[in-house]
Amino acid sequence: MKDIETRADLEVLMREFYNRLLKDDTINYIFTDVAGINLEEHLPIITDFWELSIFHTGGYRNNVMQVHLGLNSKEKLTDEHFATWLKHFEETTNSLFSGANAEKIKTRALSIATIMKIKLSTPIN
Q1: Domain segments of the chain: what residues?
Q2: Average pLDDT for residues 88-111, to the nearest whole number?
Q3: What is the CATH number that goes with domain 7-121?
Q4: d(CA 13, CA 17)
């Protein structure tokens, strides 16, 4: 199995990951009903995020924390939501890729989810 080496690899990973998320009734409503994402519009944006995170290239310019703070204000993001998201992320990555960047993206996903959980549960003064 090959490693994640290009933006095209990230596109494959993100499409499969979101396909899995959108089939999971415990979390899909956050993307469809609460966030109201259009998958075809969202995929290039989320791929930009991971391209910046893994390869330090790409055009992601949004504040990912601010996006999730807004989402959390509409629907409380729970530990279970984060666990489900991470499970699908890891399983999808493992089903498609193997290598240093595959490990790096899973570690980054865990780190990002952990930081978000902390920030979303801490009142901002």
Answers
A1: 7-121
A2: 98
A3: 1.10.490.10
A4: 6
